[in-house]
Amino acid sequence: MWHSFLVARTQPGPRERLLTAAQQLSYQQGVNVGVDALLSAANVARRSLYEHFGGKDGLIAEVLRRAAAEDLDRYRSAIAAAGDDPRKRLLAVFDMLDEVVSAPDFRGCRYLSADLALADPAHPAHAVTREYRQALHELLAPEVKRLGLPRPAHVTDQLMLLIEGTLATGAARHTSRPARDARELAQGILG
Questions:
Q1: N or C end: fewer C-beta atoms under 10 angstroms in the chain?
Q2: 167-175 long-range CB contacts below 8 Å, 24 or more apart?
Q3: For the segment 8-24, what is each residue's pLDDT rounded down to a tens digit?
């Protein structure tokens, strides 16, 4: 009896199951994945979607927020693992992206995909994608500033362009290694 109580308590609840299913399906199929597919994959009732997220738009925004936190942690880890030299720390981002883009299940940048798929500019997902890009910019900016380059904000913008270009190209041309090319360009930008 006690054992069955513990087993029941360790299984994720409807909110977590919805987030997990939506994070996976929206990446594989895009943010326009059907509500029925999400509910079926999460094994939850439609009511749970509305109770926890107010509807599919809220769920998609929360999935992007959760993915952004995970992705920013991945960037932070790559930067931290590269030591103290700011140039090496910034170039490590492209080494990490090479692994990400080369993975067989890579489907592109979920933030760009969401921005392109969601035509309504007021969709809550757009605010999340803007916040994600701003947070990534703020993560890179101190490293660029430490290099003492002229126009550090411009250099950071260029690195952001290389990152987003790497992710877009990796999705469009699966056999290419765009992160390696982007790393080479970044080396030129960083001096």
A1: N
A2: 167/97, 167/100, 167/101, 167/108, 167/109, 167/112, 168/108, 168/109, 168/112, 170/97, 170/100, 170/101, 170/102, 170/106, 170/108, 171/106, 171/107, 171/108, 171/109, 172/108, 174/106
A3: 556 789 999 999 999 99
Residue 64 has pLDDT above 60, yes or no: yes
Please enumerate in sequence order all residues whose Cβ is within 8 A of that of 162, keeping only pairs 6 or more positions apart, or say none: 94, 182, 185, 186, 189
Is 22 a member of any domain?
Answer: no
Residue type, 113: S
* Per-residue tokens: 34: 């059907």
CB contact at 8 A, 143 and 186: no
Helix (H, G, I), strand (E, B) or coil at 188: helix
The three-point CA angle 54-60-61 to 5° equals 85
How many domains, in total, are found in the chain?
1
Burial class (CB within 10 angstroms; exposed 0-12, middle 13-18, buried 19+) of 72? middle
Q: Enter the DSSP assignment of 175.
A: T
Q: Report whether 77 contacts 55 (CB < 8 A).
A: no
Report CA torsion sign: 84, 90, 91, 94. Answer: positive
Q: Where are the beta strands (DSSP E) in the chain?
A: none
pTM exceeding 0.85:
yes
Query: At 131, which CATH number?
Result: 1.10.357.10
Specify the residue for token string 């030129």.
188
